[in-house]
Q: What sequence folds into this?
């Protein structure tokens, strides 16, 4: 059998095999996504921006992907997990703060007075977060957060909060990184709290976590150095604060953004207004059985204006109930 | 000749060759550094933290290197280049601001009144920077900065400012990146100004540029989106502001830091106080012939306390005059 003529055929077969294996790989890497419109849109987008020489090719340095955290990468019901942490911290730290017994909203937390706590509103929550998240160094705070994350359990699932992350989104993060994307969190959560678990749980390193930020002060006490956290809100990373922090910290417009609530609207708008190819996606909480079903009327993670905008702009809206095979890593 | 016994020898020779080529590579990549104590300290440090299985090995994700910009990566005499830009911007923007003709410190700039400008002090400079760096979108501002950088010339060298970068430091940045480091700028310069050239000149992408920050506001005018820069200082990235921004934005302690002035002292201290291996270095401006010679008495880039600290802590102090073969890329 002559060997020369066989070579072009062999090369062609090799390319075919490589091509098949590439397409297969995309499906393999998103195994918890049903073959629905959202997975198709993701795979099409990633295929387009990574195709060298293609009209939509985006150089790796510009493949910035931003994700909200609460409700987008992990659950946020019955309340933002960080608020549950702050409430636990009030109880844990109470012995060092005897005045809290008589001072709202701390009194309400210590007495389990849900009505008084609810009445204190967002101002009350912010006061609790500021008090429980400051007065210590960043290192100490992260140690506190990690201790809580290791021991606390979600009231309904009885699982650690870090297991209540969305398996399909973990796969999406990995799929994007495998395709040269840099994945960021841009979230209303406080930045150090998210850094306490983002690298281990999401594979997102601290420098790619952007969030609500407290003031801090470098302290040098006879050569003992620390960064002291102050009870002062420096940046509220919600709504318009998201494109503002993206501009200030990343300095580049993302080409992909995922959120789940009206707090993500401006980040999605900003991403979708980019000149080149772009992808704006919403996780829609439609699964009352496996997770929670809520949108326009919810107090936590309200999705109303952003849902209208998504429909009018043809953004991708992920229907959790029909598009996700699994919700959590522990689901079978 | 039996082939089996030759194999171990061949393997040994291969390892030897690889070893020699590795050491040669380190020298090749820092060709503008004389074989002095600073280059040796750099090569030793990088060798130690990259040696897998070695006691000082640092995983790539933790190889964070931070560099001041003015006086560390490029020159800063006779005045910080960004201030020269701001003064040129006052003249360029003056027709749109008729009130500046009668208002200090703008009047002093427009009339070339050096004494009145000097009398306005740091407050005057800050007023000029705030006025000339705000009121436009980030995109517009970066376009302004790039236009200036393309046309302005340094008063002494008559070269573009972006050519007055230190060749040995460009080599150091590349050498660190080739060894798995992530290189950051952490500088008193305003962040968008530095982003206008950092990627092209230093190979440092926008998301690794940290600096002094102005407030901003996301604007949506009938669907036309922009990030408007406000004349409000949000973060002064100097002195203690450097470890504060490192903590807030990177969220990880650097293992290598380079500065050149007292404004870098806390960043160097913070880096040097890390638990693992660390490297703190100062560029000492000792070369009055090829660059400028200044330290304890200089108004720009004063190096006094940090020089004392460096001596007492055994930090690396680079003697530009004796340790650098070349200063600028255009030097022969």
A:
């Amino acid at each position: 059998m002559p060997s020369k003529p066989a070579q072009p055929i062999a090369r062609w077969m090799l390319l075919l095999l490589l091509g098949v294996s590439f397409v297969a790989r995309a499906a393999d890497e998103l195994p918890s996504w049903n073959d629905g419109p959202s997975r198709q849109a993701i795979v099409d987008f990633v295929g387009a921006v990574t195709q060298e020489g293609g009209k939509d090719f985006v150089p790796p340095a510009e493949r910035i992907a931003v994700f909200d955290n609460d409700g987008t990468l992990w659950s946020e019901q019955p309340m933002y997990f960080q608020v549950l942490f702050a409430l636990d911290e009030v109880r844990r730290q109470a012995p060092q703060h005897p005045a809290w017994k008589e001072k709202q909203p701390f009194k309400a937390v210590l007495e389990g007075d849900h009505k008084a706590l609810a009445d204190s509103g967002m101002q009350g929550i912010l006061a609790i977060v500021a008090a429980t998240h400051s007065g210590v160094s960043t290192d100490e705070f992260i140690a506190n957060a990690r201790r809580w994350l290791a021991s606390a359990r979600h009231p309904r699932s009885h699982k650690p909060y870090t297991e209540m992350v969305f398996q399909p989104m973990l796969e999406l993060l990995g799929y994007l990184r495998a395709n040269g994307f840099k994945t960021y969190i841009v979230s209303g959560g406080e930045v150090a709290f998210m850094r306490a678990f983002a690298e281990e749980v999401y594979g997102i390193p601290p420098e790619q976590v952007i969030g609500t930020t407290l003031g801090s002060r470098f302290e040098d006490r006879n050569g003992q150095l620390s960064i002291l956290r102050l009870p002062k809100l420096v940046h509220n990373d919600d709504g318009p604060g998201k494109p503002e922090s993206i501009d200030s910290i990343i300095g580049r417009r993302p080409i992909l953004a995922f959120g789940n609530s009206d707090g993500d609207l401006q980040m999605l708008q900003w991403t979708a207004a980019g000149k080149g190819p772009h992808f704006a996606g919403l996780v829609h909480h439609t699964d009352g059985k496996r997770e929670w079903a809520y949108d326009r009327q919810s107090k936590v993670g309200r999705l109303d204006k952003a849902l209208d905008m998504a429909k009018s702009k043809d953004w991708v809206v992920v229907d959790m109930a029909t598009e996700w095979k699994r919700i959590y890593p522990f689901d079978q």
